[in-house]
Design a protein that fits this description.
Number of helices: 11
Helix content: 25-40%
Shape: globular
Order of helices and strands: EHHEEEEEEHEHEHEHEEHEHHEHEHE
Number of strands: 16
Strand content: 25-35%
Radius of gyration: 19 Å
Largest sheet: 8 strands, mixed
Structural class: alpha/beta
Distance between the termini: 6 Å
C-alpha cells in the first residue's frame, strides 16, 4: 500500500489559488445541499503551552473526498520564530478506506482559508472593487490577499499589523506577486488601512476588534477569518449588526466564532441576523449582495470539508505531475 507525502512546497504547487477558489465554491455548495458528513471539530485545550489542538474529519459525497486534519494553533509561536499553525491532513480513498496521502497542513490550511475568502469575495464584493485592506501580516494574511486578487482587479493594497517589521516584509514580498498589484503599502494604523477600502480581510488572533466600525466605507466587503474561539473578536459589534452576515456554517459559527457569539451575548443581533451560509449563495439557494452600498461580512471558522475537498484536488494534481514522495506502508 502506497502513501503519497506532500510537503508544503508540494502542496503550494499542487493547489494554485484559482483552483483552490473553485474547490471551495464546490465544497460549500455540497455542504448546502446536504451532501457532507461534518462533525463539529474536536478541540483540545493546551493552555499550559498557550495553544490549542484541533481534529477535523469530513466526507464530501459529491467530491468523494474523505480526510481528517489534525492541527495545532500556537499564537505565541511567532515570538519564537515558529509558524502559528502546524498540522497534517490524512486523505483516505473513500471507496476502500485505505490511506492514500499525507499533506502538510499549514500550507493547505492557509490556501483553503484564503480560497474561502476568495469565493466569498467573488460572490459578495462589488464587481468594481479596487482597493483591499489586509489586517495581519502572517501566512494567513498572505493567502487572503492572493485570493482576493484572484477574483477582483485590485489596484491598491494596504496592510496593517501590530508587528511593523513583519508588515514591511509583507509589503515587500507580496508586491507584484502574481495578480497582486505592485502598490502594496503599510498603513499607520488599522483604521487608515480600512478607510475607503472595497475589500477588508482580517487574519489575526485578536481578542478585541481590530478596526473601528466608523472606518468602514459603505459597499465594503469584509472577510473575517482570524477568530476561531468564542472569546476572540476581530470585527466590531456594530459592523456585525450593520452588515449582511454570511457564514461558512451556522452551527460551527454559533459554537465557535466570537465575532458572532459576542454580539449575540450583547443583544446587538439574534441568530436570524445570519443571512445565509456561503454554500447557499454559491448553489443559488440564497441571494448575496443587494446593492452597491451594502456592507457584507463573511465570517468563517474553517470547516473540515474545505480540507477534504482541497486535499482531494491537490492530490489529483500531485499524482498527475509526480509531486511528493511515495512510500510503502506494507
Amino acid at each position: 500500500m502506497e502513501l503519497r507525502i506532500l510537503n508544503a512546497t508540494d502542496v503550494r504547487l499542487a493547489l494554485p489559488m484559482t483552483a483552490a477558489v473553485a474547490a471551495m465554491k464546490k465544497a460549500f455548495a455540497e455542504l448546502a445541499r446536504g451532501e457532507v458528513t461534518l462533525p463539529l471539530r474536536t478541540q483540545l485545550d493546551v493552555s499550559a503551552h498557550g495553544g490549542v489542538a484541533l481534529f477535523m474529519p469530513a466526507y464530501a459525497a459529491g467530491s468523494d473526498a474523505l480526510a481528517v486534519k489534525a492541527v495545532a494553533v500556537y499564537p505565541r509561536n511567532a515570538q519564537r520564530g515558529l509558524p502559528t499553525i502546524h498540522g497534517v491532513v490524512l486523505v483516505f480513498e473513500a471507496s476502500s478506506g485505505r490511506p492514500v496521502a499525507l499533506l502538510e497542513g499549514g500550507a493547505l490550511t492557509a490556501i483553503r482559508t484564503g480560497a474561502a475568502s476568495g469565493a466569498a469575495t467573488d460572490l459578495l464584493a462589488r464587481p468594481d472593487a479596487r482597493v483591499a485592506a489586509i489586517i495581519g501580516s502572517g501566512v494567513q494574511a498572505r493567502t487572503q490577499l492572493e485570493a482576493v486578487c484572484a477574483v477582483r482587479p485590485i489596484q491598491e493594497v494596504r496592510v496593517y499589523s501590530t508587528n511593523p517589521e513583519q508588515a514591511e516584509q509583507f509589503a515587500r514580498e507580496m508586491s507584484g506577486q502574481g495578480a497582486i498589484p505592485s502598490c502594496v503599502v503599510v498603513a499607520a494604523d488599522a483604521d487608515s488601512a480600512v478607510q475607503g477600502a472595497d475589500v477588508v480581510c482580517t487574519a489575526t488572533t485578536s481578542f478585541t476588534p481590530v478596526f473601528s466600525a466608523s472606518a468602514l466605507s459603505s459597499g465594503c466587503h469584509v472577510n473575517a477569518v482570524g477568530s476561531f474561539r468564542p472569546d476572540m473578536q476581530e470585527i466590531p459589534t456594530e459592523t456585525v449588526r450593520q452588515a449582511r452576515l454570511v457564514v461558512d456554517q451556522r452551527e460551527a459559527v454559533l459554537a465557535e466564532a466570537g465575532d458572532v457569539i459576542i454580539p449575540l451575548q450583547q443583544g446587538a443581533i439574534d441568530e436570524s441576523h445570519i443571512h445565509a451560509e456561503l454554500g447557499a449563495i454559491a448553489s443559488g439557494q440564497a441571494t448575496g449582495r443587494e446593492d452597491a452600498r451594502q456592507i457584507t461580512l463573511f465570517k468563517s471558522v474553517g470547516l473540515a470539508v474545505q480540507d477534504a475537498v482541497a486535499a482531494s484536488v491537490a492530490l489529483e494534481r500531485a499524482e498527475a505531475e509526480g509531486l511528493g514522495t511515495v512510500i510503502q506502508l506494507d
